[in-house]
Specification:
alpha/beta, Csp_YhjQ, Rossmann fold, Putative UspA domain-containing protein, Rossmann-like_a/b/a_fold, three-stranded parallel beta sheet, 325 residues, 10 helices, 49% helix, 2 domains, UspA
């Protein structure tokens, strides 16, 4: 009689690099691994020069490999200090970071990466590596933005939902995360008719917003009912607004940049039109925020700093819109 071979545990993978913010990333990833009951894998990518190079190239390669191994070992120790008893391993990925992480995502529980990679675009909400991983990985991806979390954040999980299959998968993940944390789940849906949709077809048929909200609430109530039996302890708050994402972002302009980054990094198929619309909404929100704060910039230092930050984000969004073509 032979016993069945147990499949290996799906790890939480922390994609690390040199630079500030990665200690926060590793600590967060270690806590997530412990929360999910999974091992943690510290992954770092580096590229070797092409074969046939000079002796100096070979020496540089050996030096880079040694430094990369030391970096992984440092973060392994940090993870074990953060969560004693956690199973932690390290891996050096030969080749581009994004491709290596995407390849490993099929067998991962979760990937945790920093919000800025080494793609040379420091002002953009997401770096080139995090953008590629978040939009192509086969598992959920968490993009960590260091030093932007409140000292006492609300115990909430927020999920943006629509009526497509990808959004329902996101809803499943959100229920799981809320249950693990004992947190409230906030579902947010932007309802808009085709006459006002920035990416949909234009129509001259008027749509009753009340009717739209009623139909969508019925759909989401049905989906919530299917999940409440599996997650009976999760409190859910559903918010449906008949407005464009831009209007909601202006209403909560202090969180516009983080909201945009979250939308851009969602685990769905890529759609340039949707990306362009979200970026335009964020640029509009940041412009409104900057105009408001500029009016008080000479009176309050925090207003001046907020205005500068919003102008910078507005510029970054517009630059990315132009790059999309």
């Amino acid at each position: 009689m032979t016993s069945a071979v147990q499949p290996p545990e799906r790890p939480v993978i922390a994609g690390i690099d040199r630079g500030p913010g990665h200690e926060d990333l590793v600590r967060f990833a270690a806590r997530e691994a412990a929360l999910h009951g999974r091992p943690l894998q510290i992954a770092h990518a580096f590229e070797l020069p092409l074969p046939g190079g000079s002796v100096s190239d070979e020496e540089e390669s050996r030096s880079a490999a040694k430094a990369s191994a030391q970096l992984v070992e440092h973060y392994e120790r940090l993870a074990r200090e953060e969560v004693p008893g956690l199973s932690v391993s390290g891996e050096l990925i030969m080749g581009p970071a994004a491709a290596g992480l995407i390849e490993r995502s099929a067998d991962a529980e979760l990937i945790v990466i920093g919000h800025r990679g080494s793609g040379g675009f420091p002002r953009l909400p997401l770096g080139s590596v995090s953008w590629q991983v978040a939009t192509h990985a086969e598992c959920p991806v968490v993009v960590v933005r260091p030093s932007e979390t409140a000292e006492r954040p609300d115990n909430r999980v927020v999920v943006g939902v629509d009526t497509d299959d990808a959004s329902l998968q996101a809803l499943d993940v959100a229920f799981l995360e809320a249950g693990l944390r004992g947190a409230r789940l906030d579902m947010v849906h932007c309802a808009s008719d085709t006459a006002t949709s920035p990416t949909g077809a234009v129509t001259t048929v008027p749509v009753d917003p009340t009717w739209v909200r009623s139909g969508q609430r019925e759909f989401f109530d049905t989906e919530l009912g299917r999940r409440r039996d599996r997650h009976p302890g999760v409190e859910v708050n559903l918010r449906i607004e008949h407005a464009s994402p831009g209007q909601l972002l202006v209403e909560a302009s202090t969180g516009a940049c983080n909201t945009t980054a979250s939308v851009l990094s969602r685990h769905t198929g890529y759609d340039a039109d949707i990306t362009r619309a979200i970026l335009q909404a964020c640029a509009t929100a940041c412009e409104a925020c900057a105009d408001e704060c500029s009016a008080h910039a000479d009176q309050h230092e925090h207003c001046r700093l907020c205005a500068e930050a919003c102008r910078s984000c507005e510029k970054a969004c517009n630059e990315l819109i132009q790059a999309l073509g």
